[in-house]
Hints:
Elements: E1 7-11, H1 15-28, E2 33-37, H2 40-49, E3 59-63, E4 65-66, E5 69-70, H3 71-80, E6 86-91, H4 95-104, E7 109-112, H5 117-139, E8 143-150, H6 155-165, E9 169-175, H7 176-185, E10 193-198, H8 203-215, E11 222-226, H9 232-240, E12 244-247, H10 252-285, E13 289-294, E14 299-302, H11 304-310, H12 314-317, H13 332-343, E15 348-355, E16 361-372, E17 378-387, H14 389-408, H15 414-429, E18 433-440, E19 443-450, H16 460-469, E20 477-478, E21 489-497, E22 500-509, H17 515-567, H18 573-587, H19 592-603, H20 614-617, H21 625-631, H22 634-642, H23 653-657, H24 678-692, H25 704-714, H26 721-734
Parallel strand pairs: 1-2, 1-3, 3-6, 6-7, 8-9, 8-10, 10-11, 11-12
Antiparallel strand pairs: 4-5, 13-14, 13-17, 15-16, 16-17, 18-19, 18-22, 20-21, 21-22
Amino acid sequence: MPPHHLHLxxxxxxxxxxxxFRRAMLLHDATIKITHIDSYQAAYAHLHSLxxxxxxxxxxxxxxxxxxxxxxxLLAYIRSRHLPLAVIILTGGGGDHMVISALKAGxxxxxxxxxDYLDRIGAIIEQACQRFHSQQARRSQTIxxxxxxxxxxxxxxxxxxxxxxAPHLHCVPVRGQRALLHGLAQGQLASDIVLIDxxxxxxxxxxxxxxxxQFRRLVQPIIVMAQPGNEEFPLQALRLGVADYIIKRxxxxxxxxxxxxxxxxxxxxxxxxxRLRLQAQALNDAANAIMIADRNGIIEWVNPAFxxxxxxxxxxxxxxxxRLLRSGKQDRTFxxxxxxxxxxxxxWRGRLINRRKxxxxxHEEMTITPVTDEDGVISRFIAIKQDISEQVAREQRRATLxxxxxxxxxxxxxxxxxxxxxxxxxxxxxxxxxxxxxxxxGSLHVDIALSYLATLEQQPAVLASLSDRFRHISGPISVADxxxxxxxxxxxxxxxxxxRLVGVLLLQRATPLSEAELDLLNDIAELAANALHRTDLFxxxxxxxxxxxxxxxxxxxGWSRALDLRDRxxxxxxxxxxxxxxxxxxxxxxxxxxxxxxxxGALLHDIGKMGIPDAILLKPGPLNDEEWAIMRTHPTLAxxxxxxxxxxxxxxxxxxCHHEKWDGTGYPRGLRGExxxxxxxxxxxxxxxxxxxxxxxxxxxxxxERALAYIREQAGRHFDPRVVEVFEQVIAEMGSNxxxx
Length: 741
């Protein structure tokens, strides 16, 4: 039906009846528009002027008894021109025979002028117009008909009539059973309707109908046509499952388009109902809870999964507000944002905590989709709900373990790790008391304990019992009985690492632990055991490294003393220059690790002289040029000797570069200024100072003042001026030359 108000053409030659009609229609709907024509001739001329595609009327109200013509002729003319107008017959006489004739001629409804017809006429005409235009809309859709002819029939005339009067019915003629079955097998007959026209009833035709419906599972509706006198044939076909039948009596052609349309749309309606049934079944059988609510949040429908999820039966939920499930865990701003989004026509998806009928809380993931009516106005909401409590629990569990692992990772000893561990466990489980027992020599001992469990330190018998109980336990258990903790919950979780018990984690609180909490405690115990085991390994490794480092340093000091003896240096030369070099380097900002390498480099500063022949190294007199050339190779020999030893690589700066000079005149590489490593620049000052203030076979030791004056004089030439400045400060602070003794 068009969306505008009704516009009717009234063809009535009685002005009194026309006035009554107008009054009755306006009482029914004050917006109805009526155009009145009072004669056959005027009506015929007016109808002739109308467009066949877009006439200005929705319907024609036609009086059959006109003074100057027959109303049935006007009806026939309207239908012959295919004017898209509903026709309602208005008659005061002629009886049922006249009405039936009008309906057969194509009238859509009728009103007889008797009794209270004026009270009913408005509704009758409006409904007739609605039906007609609904059918017109349907006729805009093409319906394909497989027209199967058996025997000599008038099929060509029938098809021609359908093409002329019902062009939306597209016929595909097929002659005989063989052609039909072949076409079906080849997929060439994908039609909406199968129409079987049988000149004479045959058993073969009934067999064909049976094969199509029962064996080939033909989904298209079948209509059979038979000649008058053969009514038994279509009745048998009906029993086999055909959709309809036509007896080819006079006027059957007018009935045929209606029968085809009705069969097609009944089939569509059946398919639609089947889809709706399947959809309804799918909604009811869905694993996820589904709820439909109106625009105000009032629940209209829920599926069985909703009851499983929330505990509310459908009868308890329907008619209630969706607030029924609110837990109070989301604030008003949460729901305001949610409603703003869905009322704007946008789907919403998110997580929230809801409350079941029994009061328990659960985590839910929900998608809410707005549904609009035919005018585009949001009228309902469909909510699909899924219980994700287990998923959230797993996520929280992973997050908790990750947070504990992150907090424990920096700890390098039991003393650093245990307070962090116990603090986290106490916070997570809301424990009143907590303790960590450490395994040693087959027995458990208190490592750290807080509050109630601190009394374990004075209960060796209880510790012994705990040691026995946890000897073969792999998961958390209750130990309240061993502690005589009546009314308290005390849980112990064994800590296993490398297949051995390293300790036990105890916690005490007022309420029992849930299964999920016990699983989490077990995971934390495993994490803690590995962390504790790691700290044990780290402490063992650190102790081994310290022993190894001490052995290395003792070896280096041994080498240093041996070098002093071979080089006939003054006693303690290497020790003295090493200590003063380290002190100056510390003053100049070297780190502890760097000072360790400075110490080693200073002790080994002359290690390269092991490659210098004794004849040159111990020569009592001055060296010639060739001997000096050999002597100046000892820094390079030092590098060749020490570089293969990986842990001494950072200590090479001093042995290699302590004979380089600030002005670039040193050896072995002639480095200049800050090209020389700082450690070597520091050592160069200390080494010269120690040599000047020590007795030599060829001269006596210089005084402190004379040596310092020489050092100052060489600043900027032999020595780094900044190093000389710091050197003087350190010497002045020492107040004596004790470091050189």
